[in-house]
Amino acid sequence: MPTSSTFLDTLLHLMRDLRRSYDARASAVGLTLSRARALTMLSRMDGATQADLAAALEIEAPTLKRQIDALEHAGFVERRPAADDGRKNALFLTDRGRDSAVVDFTRRMRAELVAGIPAEDLAVAQSVLDRIAANIARLDRE
């Protein structure tokens, strides 16, 4: 039976391995991990405002603005006035952004990482990770 220390060490090791793998593929198409993450999230929220995308990514709006500026400059994203409020920008993937190897990689990676794991086991793992996240939030409030 793994100890809590072993479990957390394994989790940290997996996070490092996942980031290293993701970084290698993201850089191959000219992106950083954070920009690739924003691009991937936007692929699920095309037309979102910067504020909505920042909230979904759980990052500060100024941080996202710099990422979006770079993504726009590289031709992955375009800003358009939001339909409901012309003072805000809505973000849309360009053809380059939609065809991005990073978006495809992320979709494949998510599926491949859990391949062969029964749904019941994934549900238990998700429950454990949710509990750890709740414990972190509780510790941060103390």
What does this 3D model show about the protein?
The protein has 142 residues and is mainly alpha-helical. The chain is 69% helix and 7% strand. It is built from 7 helices and 2 strands; from the N terminus they run ααααββααα. It has helices at 4-28, 33-44, 50-57, 61-73, 95-98, 101-113, 119-141; strands at residues 77-81, 89-93. The longest helix is centred in the first third of the chain and has 25 residues, at 4-28. It is globular.
Quickly count the helices.
Answer: 7
Distance between the termini: 30 Å
Query: What composes the largest sheet?
Result: 2 strands, antiparallel
User: SSE string, helix = H, strand = E?
Assistant: HHHHEEHHH
Describe the oligomeric state of these chains in a short phrase.
single chain
Mean pLDDT over the full residue set: 89
Number of strands: 2
What is the radius of gyration?
A: 18 Å
Indicate the percent of residues in helices: 55-70%
Q: In what order do the strands lie side by side in the largest sheet? A: 1-2
Task: Describe this structure in a few short sentences.
With 142 residues, the protein is mainly alpha-helical. Helices cover 69% and strands 7% of the residues.
